[in-house]
Amino acid sequence: MVKQNVIKEKGLQFAIQIVPPARAMQSQNEFGLPMELLRSGTAIDTLVCEAECAESKYDFIHKLPIALKEANENGYFMNSFSKRTKLGFCLSVFSLKR
Prior knowledge:
Layout lengths: L5 H12 L1 H9 L5 H20 L4 H28 L8 H5 L1
Helix pairs in contact: 1-3, 2-3, 3-4
């Protein structure tokens, strides 16, 4: 029986859910921010997948904090954009970081 990787699953769901807010940012003429949001939002899942297939224990340990850093960066982008506009997002980076 294969164990489910909760972090990987949450990262994938977050990567899927990040697309609509990024599109909303594009429609608000936020230059560069939508691409950064997509990059950091999809990097979380990517880094967790890379950690799963890490070449060494050190490589595994190295990749997970980077995924957390990307989640923090994504939270900053979402918070910053939400405060500057009337658009609210029900996407929570904090649930991803738990």
